[in-house]
Amino acid sequence: MSEPIAFLGNLDPDEEADFLAALGAALPEETIRPFRTLTPDERATVRIAIVANPDPAEVALLPNLAWIQSLWAGVERLVRDLGPGTAPIVRLIDPELARTMAEAVLAWTYYLQRDMPAYRRQQETATWRQLAYRPPGEVRVGLLGLGALGSAAAARLVQAGFRVAAWTRAPKPVPAEVTAHSGPEGLPDLLAASDIAVCLLPLTEETRGLLDAGRFAAMRPGAALINFGRGAIVDTDALVAALDAGRISHAVLDVFSVEPLPPDSRLWRHPGVTVLPHISGPTTPGSAAAVVAGNVRAYRATGRIPAAVDVARGY
Ligand code: NAP
């Protein structure tokens, strides 16, 4: 029998129960215990922690941690909260999450391509007006980020007939149908060539505030933005100014610097903004538990820690 695995999170009780049940079913050979139920002696034996927004002070009470499994795909908050010198952090790379995110990217790309925001506004004034149809083959979608989620989204968009380009930090091989851009010098080219820019970047030192007034000015006049990455990548004042000036036609925002988005945020009422409550790529306990189980079993069998986040790079 191995030592217990600690579960640490700031989840509501039902959500915690769902995750613990899914993890227990996926790893029947392991004992997974909420941190609060572990004695100090048991805490000292723990090698693996499974976390969802954990209290860093509790993580610090596990002195022999070998690695930390996050239940979220985005780990910038965890990396920041735990600080340097923490045990390796393994983020969730879940094919089901990638599928769900790719579906969301396709859905909201269609929303923009089929002019749904404009028809919504027309309905408010009982206006019967048919806008020109743009087939997917005439719509250029630029993905900022082509990692686990961006790659799945690119495949889905290509399959649907959109013209797809992508921007990454370093050059990397991309499918033949995708136009590749990379590095700081690659972003203006991507933005200038996109009718819809889709942000699937992690929040790092380099990406915080990346989409600012200069970047919006570099976009095609009337282009649209979808932000499914992290809220703080977008400079909200600059976005609102670009929308008000008509430079950007519409923004679909699923992530915000402060969540839940405060009721007094002007984004809620801006006619050029569609607000979503962080729903584009939810973690589902069943599929996440299967991914975590694979990581835990590989570690038990080999002693090797799964590929971890590069803390210096920030993702
Ligand atoms: P990932 O596999 O780590 O991919 C990140 C991508 O961003 C990579 O292509 C990377 O480039 C690129 N990138 C990072 N920094 C860059 C920079 N400075 N310049 C240009 N490109 C840069 O991450 P993922 O699994 O696809 O997830 C991406 C993000 O989505 C997460 O970090 C999280 O913030 C967000 N997310 C949102 C939701 C939601 O519900 N809204 C759900 C899950 C995740 P390289 O390929 O060169 O490394």
UniProtKB/TrEMBL annotation:
InterPro entries, A to Z: D-isomer_DH_NAD-bd (IPR006140), NAD(P)-bd_dom_sf (IPR036291)
An example Gene Ontology molecular-function term: oxidoreductase activity
Pfam families documented for this protein: 2-Hacid_dh_C
D-isomer specific 2-hydroxyacid dehydrogenase NAD-binding domain boundaries: 111-280
Keyword annotations of the record: NAD, Oxidoreductase
PANTHER family: 2-HACID_DH_C DOMAIN-CONTAINING PROTEIN, D-ISOMER SPECIFIC 2-HYDROXYACID DEHYDROGENASE NAD-BINDING DOMAIN-CONTAINING PROTEIN
Protein name in the entry: 2-hydroxyacid dehydrogenase
Gene that encodes it: serA
